[in-house]
Specification:
The structure holds 2 protein chains of 2 kinds. Chain A has helices spanning about 1-20, 20-40, 45-70, 75-80, 85-90, 95-125, 135-160, 165-180, 180-190, 195-205, 215-220, 230-255. Chain A is an all-alpha fold. Chain A has one domain. In chain A, helix 6 (about 95-125) packs antiparallel against helix 7. The longest helix of chain A has about 35 residues, at about 95-125. Chain B is mainly α. Chain B has a domain at about 50-215: Tetratricopeptide repeat domain (Serine Threonine Protein Phosphatase 5, Tetratricopeptide repeat, Alpha Horseshoe). Helix content of chain B is about 65%, strand content about 0%. Chain B contains 12 helices and 2 strands. Chain B has helices spanning about 5-40, 50-55, 60-80, 90-100, 105-115, 125-140, 145-155, 160-170, 180-190, 195-210, 210-245, 250-255; strands spanning about 275, 280. In chain B, strands 1-2 form a two-stranded antiparallel sheet. In chain B, a hairpin with a 5-residue loop joins strand 1 (about 275) and strand 2. In chain B, helix 2 crosses helix 4 (about 90-100). The chains are: A mainly alpha, B mainly alpha. At the A-B interface, helix 3 and helix 11 of A face helix 3 and helix 5 of B.
Chain lengths: ~260, ~300
């Protein structure tokens, strides 16, 4: 399996690395992190807090942009350029192609996130921050952001298997935004007496990916501990959801008529 | 393109770019002058609900809180000292910032001062400051700094000494709270409004504040309190002088000649005190030192 997935992943990573838009996005995110130093100067009492909050938000926001906009083009580009046909002529299954593409983009996002994390660390130490045990939460927050990217990329890839990039972007964004409001969906189900609405909101709550639980930026900013149980639960949740989406995407893609 | 043509283009660019930049700067200055009048009015908030801003921030509420807090600081900085401002947007900005991030301690700590200071130094709404700090205490019950802030607002701005003593006592019960909170509670309960209690509170603020603006404010108040203490002492000496010579002293020199003082008493800024014909000592009108107003000094002893 890995013999087929690996080369696709590596090639996807190489292709993404050659894309100058990525560098611009990373540069812009680093500039935003640098700007946090200035924000700290014109505010009072939040010099380090704003670096962490703005830094993590920039990492999350720009990573999400990359996940969605590159993710929706992963399959579409290969079909449009007709490179997919030569690839599928080789001994490689369609699902292996998909998983390889997914892994390649995830690797790209992880490398970009690592660069942005270095920028955040530089800004943090510049304003006199010291790495203490409490700051471990910042690293966990970044890990959660990566899990979020993994989910969003899987969503984008899933939609791109049967839809145009424009529609896939819209679908992914819509689900992402709905997932951010997952607790609100749950609270509707808690406050309604309508059994139909209760069933729908409950089903929606468990169906929609819960992006709210990955957001621990405020907790990390205040240096509060993040329980280890949440780390493994979020990891398991993201893993299961990604697996679900990749299986669904493979099923759709394997039936897709590429002629 | 020929080399002559290339060279001509280069020279045109070299001359044209700076000229255009100068023209741009001139036009920008003109636009700034034109728009200044209505940009000053552009203080209003589009959204007054913290819950609405939280939803619109799409999960980036911690960052949005920092932005709203920074806006509050900028708003306060832009209006402090202005006699025309009612600081009308200060509370909504603080309300939104602390709704977005209930653990934004800086917003409670400094926001309470911004709200409590009487105009034109703030909005003069110590009641809202109490509400703000209590909200912070609910969000972070282990934070004794906030309880200290509450005690300070009650003590200094509302002159509600029993409430201040209660707040300090409440704070002293928090885990890892410093011992001086209990002492403060006892002092405020026994001698609320006294000069030495006020001095202790402001000294503690001066020593614990990390922000330069707060330290400066504490230093200014401590200087005022020292001047007040000096004035009380000199007033007593003026009374002694009168009992000996039948009139109040006209200057520090007369007190010196009578052997009641040594040297020339001056306020913390170095200006000599002025002796009134009513036996009351006052600050030199040129002195930058300001005596804190409204202190009740029941049976205040000389320092």
């Amino acid at each position: 399996m890995s013999a087929s997935v690996g080369p696709v992943a590596v090639n996807t990573f190489r292709e993404a690395v050659r894309d100058r838009v990525l560098y611009n996005l990373v540069l812009f995110a680093l500039l935003m992190i640098g700007a946090a130093i200035l924000v700290g100067q014109i505010s009072i009492g939040i010099e380090q807090l704003v670096i962490v909050n703005l830094g993590l938000s920039a990492i999350s926001l720009f990573g999400l942009v990359m996940s969605i906009f590159i993710g929706v083009g992963l399959v579409y580009k290969e079909i449009e350029k007709r490179t997919l046909y030569s690839l599928l002529a080789k001994p490689i299954h369609r699902w292996q192609f998909l998983v390889g593409k997914y892994a390649g983009l995830l690797l790209t996002l992880a490398v970009n996130t690592a660069f942005m994390t270095l920028g955040l660390a530089a800004a943090f130490f510049y304003v006199g921050g010291r790495f203490e045990h409490a700051n471990l939460s910042i690293l966990i927050a970044i890990y959660f952001i990566l899990l979020e990217f993994a989910l969003v990329t899987a969503l984008a890839l899933f939609f791109s298997c049967f839809s145009t990039p424009m529609l896939s972007t819209l679908f992914t964004l819509a689900i992402y935004v709905t997932g951010v409001f997952a607790p609100d969906i749950r609270s509707i189900s808690e406050f309604t007496n309508n059994s139909m609405l209760l069933a729908v909101t409950r089903a929606l709550y468990f169906l929609i990916p819960n992006f709210h639980d990955f957001n621990v930026i405020a907790v990390a900013g205040h240096g509060e501990p993040i329980p280890f149980s949440l780390v493994w639960q979020n990891t398991l949740y993201a893993g299961l959801y990604v697996a679900l989406l990749l299986v669904a995407a493979s099923a759709v893609f394997s039936r897709r008529n590429l002629k | 393109m020929s080399s002559a043509s290339q060279s001509r283009s280069l020279w045109m660019a070299a001359a044209g770019v700076p000229l255009l930049l100068i023209a741009l700067a001139a036009v920008q200055a003109k636009i700034d002058a034109e728009t200044r009048a209505f940009s000053q009015e552009n203080d209003q908030l589009l959204l007054h609900s913290g819950a609405a801003v939280r939803r619109l921030s799409l999960g980036y509420d911690a960052l949005a809180a920092d932005i709203y807090w920074t806006r509050a600081v900028q708003y306060y900085g832009g209006h402090v000292g202005s006699h025309n401002s009612d600081f009308g947007q200060l509370w909504p900005l603080l309300d939104i910032a602390t709704t977005l991030d209930p653990k934004l301690i800086a917003a409670y700590h400094f926001g309470a001062i911004f709200l409590s200071e009487p105009p034109p130094g703030g909005s003069g709404r110590a009641d809202l400051a109490v509400q703000l700090v209590r909200r912070g205490m609910a969000a972070d019950p282990e934070n004794y700094f906030l309880v200290n802030d509450l005690g300070f607002v009650y003590y200094w701005y509302l002159r509600d000494y029993p409430a201040a003593a209660n707040a300090y006592l409440e704070g002293s019960k928090i885990r890892n709270a410093p011992a001086w909170l209990k002492i403060m509670a006892a002092l405020v309960a026994q001698r609320g409004g006294s000069l030495d209690t006020s001095r202790m509170i402001w000294t503690e603020i001066y020593n614990s504040a990390q922000d330069e603006t707060v330290r400066e404010r504490a230093l200014v108040t401590l200087r005022g309190l020292r001047a007040l203490s000096d004035e009380q002492l000199l007033d007593q000496l003026a009374q002694q002088y009168k009992s000996r010579f039948g009139r109040f002293p006209a200057s520090a020199g007369e007190l010196r000649e009578a052997g009641l003082i040594r040297g020339n008493p001056a306020d913390p800024a170095g200006y000599p005190y002025v002796f009134g014909s009513d036996g009351k000592t006052r600050l030199d009108p040129q002195s930058p030192v300001r005596i804190p107003q409204g202190l009740q000094l029941p049976g205040e002893q000389s320092p």
